[in-house]
Amino acid sequence: MESISLLIVLTAALVTPLFMAHFHINSVPTAVAEILVGIVLGKSMLGWVHTGGDMQGLSELGVTILIFLSGMEIDFSLFKPQPKTAKGPQPANPVMLAVVGFASIVVLSLAFSYLLQLIRFFNHPIFATILFTTIALGVVIAALKEKELLHQPLGQTILLIAAFGEVIPLLGLTVYSALNGNSDSNLWLLLLLLLAALVLLARFKRVYSFFAAIDKSTTQLDIRLAFFLVFALVTIASRVGAESILGAFLAGMVMNLLGPRQETRDKLTSLGYGFFIPIFFIVTGANLNLKALMADPKSLSLIPLVLIGFFITKIGLIPVLRHRFKMQNALAGTFLSTTTITLVIPTLTVGRNLGILTEQQSGAFTLAAVIACVSGPILFNSFFKPEPETFKKTHVTFIGGNLLTVPIAQHLSSERYDVQLFTDKAENFRTYNSEVNIALTTYQEDALVKADAFDCDIIVLGDFNADTNYALAKMALAHKVPRIIARFAAKDATTDRYDRLRDKGVEVFNALDANIALLRSLIETPSTLQILDDTIAGIYEVTIRNSRFAGLELKNLPFIDDITVSQIYRNKKFIAPHGDTQLHLGDHLIFSGDKHLIRNIRTQVEKPN
Predict the structure, then answer these.
(1) I want to staple 68 with a disulfide (CB 3.0 to 4.6 A). Which of 252, 269, 386, 586 is the partner?
(2) Which residue has the higher pLDDT, 114 or 179?
(3) Which residue has the higher pLDDT, 384 or 593?
(4) Which domains are present in the chain?
(5) Which residue numbers delimit the RCK C-terminal domain (predicted)?
């Protein structure tokens, strides 16, 4: 019977997304659809799926993997101080908006939970508060990715609120369970779980690169490491009296901090959402007993109340988001934040284990969460309107205003580049001041720091003095400028300082070598100069920053018929492109094509998402 039930569940997991794709059902999250299918197949209707034994074990493994993948979605870079984008008053920071916004959710959730106790509908307000503050991070991320908002201020704010909506309720649930359960473990032992996570992170951060170097298809060390982290922290969590899902979430955060490759993330996502997680959602639906729920009027009346609660507890986000975004998008973000399902189900399981929830009450909370999870993304898509384009220009700093750097600065597209030049020569400043954005300053480090010269994406050291450029390169390295291009008129064979700069990532430009390379290219490939000088066609390079293109085969690029890809630069190596070559995040595409297409291609490919 168990094998037949598993076959039915796996068949449903396969057919459900095919059915949704065929009928273009895009507004309903797949997880919600799988719960609804489980309701049809389980206790409430057909009774084909029996959820005991091995099926329950696979379901519990599914929720563990789901929470682990949610932990991997936490983007810690959002918590880092962001550089100023302009002088003068700065718009509200996404982190601050998220903190204030989630605080409003906690306050309103607590108030509504005590209201439920006051009217004698549910007598455990702290537990209800935990439920009302949960947000489905995975569903929120999917909705933001679809709108390409993950790296936009609105998307970052909503993403952080959703992250708080997973982390804070999860910690709250763990403490609540420890205080109200029958465990003999002391609450302070939870610190052991955090300590274990830090130890595992410190230990495996050093060996992870070694794993990547020796990994092969028959070992899949990255996946083995992921499952080791999951079960190590889940086991520790259960031993110290914490909820196992907290261990899984911490394991996901540790794995994320290790900096796994995109291929590793893809394999883990495929394994989770391809097998374990659909079983969990379908079994969750199969466990619901709507017949018993319908027979209990008090539990049945909980459904509209809980659903109202999921929305009311989020209304405090409207004035918070309105502080920076237009009203329509503040409403859209609020509706998306009502989406909850991922953490609600394991939280309800804990509640049943603690004896504070009946099966009927659990079913009412689950159905209300399902309705919220369906309506939240639909309302978000209905209300959202794109804010004014906030495409981040590449900030380029030139140090040395002269006949070499000024023409280049003038020819860089103002739509894509924000250019600033510095010179220490008063006569050069007077000559070029009316032509380009140039500032007069000394090349002392404190003066350049005060002028924000190192606050850039690319710094070009174009002074005619080699010693000056060498000193400036060392300063730029100390300030961690992402790209450093240093000009040297000719390589001095008596010193290895140029090689030392190259070893540290500085791109050394030598005029003589560049001329030799260009002349050789003209001899070997006579059309090179024509391509470079052509006013219509040209050679271009774009970087894959949009995850929509990650994993896509080259032949399936939407603009592949309009360009000719000559090379793919990946991990400091050139790869010969083929039609079935898969693209990775961070790949550099080198191609030729019509210059009128390049802006649209860059907008699609380089928009971070």
Answers:
(1) 252
(2) 114
(3) 384
(4) 1-82+91-383 (1.20.1530.20), 394-521 (3.40.50.720), 534-606 (3.30.70.1450)
(5) 524-607
**Amino acid symbol at 250:** L
Mean pLDDT on 580-601? 79
Separation CA 135–CA 210 (nearest Å): 37
Instruction: For residue 205, give the 3-state DSSP assignment.
Output: helix
| DSSP type of residue 554 | G
**Residue whose tokens read 């009928």:** 23
pLDDT band per the 50, 70, 90 thresholds, residue 27? low
Quick one: which of 582, 583, 579 has its CA closest to 605?
A: 583
pLDDT confidence of residue 235: 74
Q: 101 pLDDT band (50/70/90 cuts)?
A: very high
């998220």: which residue's tokens?
Answer: 98
**What's the mean pLDDT in 343-368?**
82
Residue 582 is classified by DSSP as B
d(CA 476, CA 174): 46
Task: Give CA–CA dist 118/304, Å, rounded.
Answer: 17
This prediction has a pTM of 0.65
Residue pLDDT, tens place only, 239-250: 655 556 677 777
Contact between residue 190 and residue 127 where contact means Cβ atoms under 8 Å apart = no
Cα gap 110→106, rounded to integer Å: 6
Angle between helices 54-72 and 277-287 (to 10 degrees): 120
Q: Burial-class residue 536 by CB neighbours within 10 Å (0-12, 13-18, 19+).
A: exposed
User: Sorting pLDDT into bands at 50, 70 and 90, what band is 588?
Assistant: confident
Secondary structure class of 308 (helix, strand, coil):
helix
Question: Which residues fall within 8 angstroms of residue 257, CB to CB, at 6 or more apart?
Answer: 76, 201, 205
Residues 365, 368: Cα–Cα separation, whole Å: 5
